[in-house]
């Protein structure tokens, strides 16, 4: 995109001011003009439309209505009806749609923004279909967001269950997935997906720990999924969707107050709240701001321990919550006479002065906090008086608690096409799409026939060529890849050699943190105080130059939380130097075996595997053109000070269109991790990374290297050994003893199932990284919230029976003598060299 040359554009000042005034007035009008949308509201499993609280729920069995609302349904499903509904039960809860396989609703999104997603569940029994919905067990996810994991809709109160989420949707398509667990099924009675008012949720808020610490703001709330846990009308009545503009439920606070005698309901304010600024009737209803709890001054004067008003809420242990406090001073008789304290957990306190946020009585405002919950499973909220206040009192009008979900995987489940037409689909759209595809295919074939085929070495998959070395000139920017290597790089990352010298104190030996055949690794500090790792090859050497250039080319284009960040590089004075972010905790292998670093608990290992899977999934699908890492292993998964996993070492990587079936290339990689199909055919696919990652998963489970020549022959190859243990029914013997007692059997079963799929001999039988990531998220959730075990799920031994290892290919010469730290690498001529002799390997395991 061309940059505007502003100094060459002359716009008269007065028309410009009129334009800006008109523009901003439109923006303000657009904010004020929000009205609750008319879609999407879906009555599932029915061909009848239902009106409920001014919403028209469209029956999803009515294809014409679905077309009109731009909703489609994919996957295998069937409608079911409650044959014996309770008297007075809403029509919305007398039908449901059942999914026995992965299925999805797809919604066309016209306006990006924050959306309400509400899921209605009512578990009725249907004798006609022999279906009891209360036995369902399933997951629900949205496009990139996990909403419900391991969910069963049992409800002893015989009333509907409503799950509400708020999330940001920026794409044109929004998919809602229903994924049955095991042999069970999923169901849904009704769905709401609609745009929330602008600025209903803010992106950052003051961060509070259970210990009362609050040193910074929590940023990025809008990038998370929020699940509504509590919506409390303090001092007021129940509010239902019938009398709420956004169809929310608000419940009284009486069931949550710690000691009811400490508070009284404030007199109801007769006038309408004085809404100002961003606070509107959509923020909270009038009745929330017209009612409040205030201190019971009479009782408090004689019982000081009841002076503060405290509410207690059950919350998820060790989770993060967005807590919103609603205030509206309807108890004071004059301005600026009342200040009081708000307490969270009794440790954090904040002075509340209404007139710092409001200019008049009965003017609503709210305060947001992101609160970390502790291990107690309770969150206590209090208000109390201040001695420096003119008026001794405190009040609260409303409270909302939303859990910030942390299991957003970014991956989506596979939805298979239905075998039977249970749902009327948009046939015309499908036919039209097929016709369009045929036309495009004909056009593309004509275009390609008119072009002269390009030589293979000029494709995007060509390795970066080696350019002349040994001179004092730049060897990166002078070469060409598809025209110019320099054009593919972020040259802003290039660092002068003098700066590198300064960063490392002229390569001070005291800063040396690693050494290998490629040279030396130093710890350094940039001018801004950021710690870095500086990798310097032997000056003047051309060894590893192509890998050096590939690493720069790839890392200069991509950025992801789970990929190691390239800070800079230097290629002058015959130097090859790479500067990375410093990874404080070293490699994943360091924390599994072969070092004196603390061993990781099972939950931490799962979180690291998930982080690495996210990085690889981004490489395959999210980075420009797609990238295959080609050397996935535990020493190339680094950990920062918070044990966040980052994939490193891209010197052997290949970039290009990953929708191609394969890329013919010479075999490179590390023994024990090599894809047997790639080894045999020399045809690389993204599934080669999946195989290598499967070996890493075994490494995590067993805490031993994939190849250990010091062991007996049958135990040398970890994958082979695991298969032998399985055949003997002794799989549990390969698990790291330090974590064996920590693993929930269901979590273990899912982890092993995922590993098995990754290690299939044929690449077509392996999942993609998105599916692997999805499965690992399930595994972690199972570990965190252990299911009630079935009879066959109560032992490690039984878990191992489900693990069917593929026929692992034996590699030649695996029993050759070599040191553990010099695992052989296959080079272009299929000969073996030590890992330390290849620049791209960089021996991160020794360097951290």
CATH fold call of the domain at 204-405:
Jelly Rolls
Question: By helix and strand content, what is the structural category?
Answer: alpha+beta
Mean pLDDT: 77
Which stretches are low in confidence, meaning pLDDT under 50 for 5 or more residues running? 1-32, 300-306, 419-436, 446-489, 787-848
How much helix is in the residues? 10-25%
Report the principal-axis shape: globular
CATH superfamily of the domain at 204-405: Galactose-binding lectin
Distance, first to last CA: 41 Å
How many helix segments? Answer: 17
**Over all CA atoms, what is the radius of gyration?**
31 Å
Q: Beta fraction of the residues?
A: 15-25%
Largest sheet properties: 13 strands, mixed
Instruction: Determine and state the CATH class of the domain at 204-405.
Output: Mainly Beta
Count of strand segments:
44
- Secondary-structure arrangement, i.e. CATH architecture of the domain at 204-405: Sandwich
Task: Provide an overview of this structure.
The protein is α+β, with helices and mostly antiparallel strands and 848 residues long. Among the domains are: 41-195, Jelly Rolls (Sandwich), CATH 2.60.120.430; 204-405, Jelly Rolls, CATH 2.60.120.430; 464-581, 2-Layer Sandwich (Phosphorylase Kinase, domain 1), CATH 3.30.200.20. Helix content is 21%, strand content 25%. Helix 9 packs antiparallel against helix 11 and helix 9 (602-622) runs antiparallel to helix 15. The radius of gyration is 31 Å and the shape is globular.
